[in-house]
């Protein structure tokens, strides 16, 4: 009799548990779909905001884009062979400097992590953060200088074309490079 009571109790318990799990599974699926749609909306909004704010929050990004893209714009800007070679040389020289900056930055960040792990003083941490920041600033200034040197290799007409391309609705940051190269989706 006791075995029967235990068996019936177990069956009732398992039946209730299974039904409860199925109800929650359906509810969780609907919530997951709802969350998925909400996440997609939020990501789309963030993407649009990022595009609009790119120039405001990342003003140096356009100089990096110029360094990376300008040498490949031979046909778009009607660059001569001499101009193209000079632009490639400038980009190569910058990339070498950039690699050095990044190496120095990695070393200084490791040192910062070590200081943080050791519960270093605020002044030690501040000094290390300033070292990291200084390297980053120097890299951005080098990008600015290089982009300006590259632009100085262009004729006035080419500079105007580049300026128009960068400021148009399809700017370099928002996929305008496809327009510049004559390709679209």
Summarize the topology:
Layout: H1 2-57, H2 61-69, H3 74-77, H4 81-117, H5 122-152, H6 156-167, H7 176-180
Helix pairs in contact: 2-5, 4-5
In short:
With 185 residues, this protein is mostly helical. It has seven helices and no strands.
Describe the structure.
- This protein has 185 residues and is mostly helical.
- 83% of the residues lie in helices and 0% in strands.
- The protein has helices spanning 2-57, 61-69, 74-77, 81-117, 122-152, 156-167, 176-180.
- The model is unreliable at 17-25, 47-54 and 169-185 (pLDDT under 50).
Key descriptive features of the protein:
185 residues; mainly alpha; 7 helices; 83% helix; elongated; disordered C terminus
Gap between N and C termini, in Å?
75 Å
Total number of beta strands: 0
- Tell me the series of helices and strands, N- to C-terminal: HHHHHHH
- Provide a count of the helices: 7
Let me know the largest β-sheet.
none
Structural class: mainly alpha
Low-confidence segments, ≥5 residues, pLDDT <50?
17-25, 47-54, 169-185
Radius of gyration: 29 Å
Measured as a percent range, the helix fraction is over 70%
Shape: elongated
Residues in β-strands, percent: under 5%
What integer is the average pLDDT? 75
């Amino acid at each position: 009799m006791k075995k029967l009571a235990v068996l019936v109790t177990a069956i009732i318990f398992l039946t209730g548990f299974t039904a409860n799990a199925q109800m929650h599974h359906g509810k969780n699926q609907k919530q997951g779909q709802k969350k998925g749609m909400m996440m997609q909306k939020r990501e789309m909004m963030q993407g649009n905001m990022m595009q609009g704010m790119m120039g405001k929050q990342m003003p140096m990004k356009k100089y990096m884009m110029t360094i990376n893209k300008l040498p490949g714009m031979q046909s778009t800007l009607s660059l001569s062979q001499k101009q193209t070679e000079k632009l490639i040389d400038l980009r190569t020289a910058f990339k070498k400097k950039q690699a050095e900056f990044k190496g120095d930055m990695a070393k200084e960040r490791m040192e910062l992590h070590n200081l943080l792990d050791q519960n270093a003083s605020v002044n030690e941490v501040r000094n290390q953060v300033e070292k990291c920041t200084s390297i980053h600033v120097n890299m951005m200034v080098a990008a600015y200088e290089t982009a300006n040197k590259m632009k100085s290799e262009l004729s006035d007409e080419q500079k105007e074309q580049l300026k128009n391309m960068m400021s148009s609705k399809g700017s370099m940051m928002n996929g305008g490079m496809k327009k510049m190269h004559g390709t679209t989706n």
